[in-house]
Specification:
By secondary structure, this protein is α/β, with parallel strands linked by helices. The chain has a single domain, classed as NAD(P)-binding Rossmann-like Domain (Rossmann fold), CATH 3.40.50.720. The chain is 54% helix and 14% strand. It has ten helices and nine strands.
Length: 256
């Protein structure tokens, strides 16, 4: 995936990793960068900074994702790279009410489904196009909160399925899985969790750099924290031991 001269859309582009990617893609020479966010003012601020376009949209709503794609292809041309980056979290486990689970499911999973539903036919017909899903290391390993871990696992699984099913039809797929990143989401955590999640903390700009490198290399998994690959190997080699270590981490995060 070559960014120069491309048409790029980023959801959740008003802050954090999304905003950093928008800035980096503009620097890399993208022809058009469309910054989309539910927060219209935030999207407009980033778009003004980089000379891009702002489109207010809630990624959880399929009709708004469809409208975002239609606007982009009508005004900027065929989408070369769609970054499904919007994400939310919630603290807790299975005791959380269905409404909270559903909110994370809609944003962290179904937003990707909606984008793929609209774009896969277009991209495979053209024989080119790339989908980038922002998941998390939690989608490969786990995390303190059940709805976040479960939905991020699902996002990784969806990205894998798309690559398996359509990778020979010109569709590129990548899955971004960072650990701790200095974003508003991390800063909103309590002190204990923020400290645990800040080991190896990266800036959003560093993650955007990793994305550009990963896209250029054609990577499926983009791991800004390379140690995540080691954790995955340990998990596969000795799953019971890995579960014990995760129990200890979970206890620390919850004051145990």
């Amino acid at each position: 995936m070559n960014i120069a001269g491309s048409v790029v859309v980023i959801t959740g582009g008003g802050s954090g990793i999304g905003a950093a990617m928008a800035r980096r893609f503009a620097t890399e020479g993208a022809a058009h960068v469309v910054v989309s966010d539910r927060d219209a003012a935030a999207a407009q601020a980033v778009a003004r900074e980089i000379g891009g376009h702002a489109v207010a949209a809630d990624a959880a709503q399929e009709y708004q994702t469809r409208a975002l794609i239609e606007w982009t292809e009508s005004h900027c041309g065929p989408i070369d790279l769609f970054c499904a980056n919007a994400g939310v979290t919630a603290h807790g486990g299975v005791e959380l009410p269905d409404a909270q689970w559903q909110r994370l499911w809609q944003v962290n999973v179904m937003a990707h489904v909606h984008a793929a539903r609209e774009l896969v036919p277009r991209m495979t017909q053209r024989g080119r196009g790339h989908l980038l899903f922002t998941a998390s290391a939690a989608g490969l390993l786990s995390q303190f909160d059940a709805p976040y871990a479960v939905t991020k696992h699902a996002a990784v699984a969806l990205a894998e399925w798309l690559s398996i099913t359509h990778g020979d039809q010109g569709l590129g797929v990548s899955c971004l899985c960072p650990q701790g990143v200095d974003t508003p989401m991390l800063r909103a955590e309590d002190d204990t969790r923020r400290e645990l999640m800040s080991q190896g903390l990266l800036s959003a700009d560093a993650v955007a750099d990793a994305v550009v490198r990963g896209l250029a290399a054609g990577d499926f998994l983009i791991l800004p924290h390379p140690e995540v690959a080691d954790y995955m190997r340990r998990r596969a080699e000795d799953h019971p031991r890995w579960l014990r270590s995760m129990r200890r981490l979970h206890a620390q995060a919850n004051g145990g």
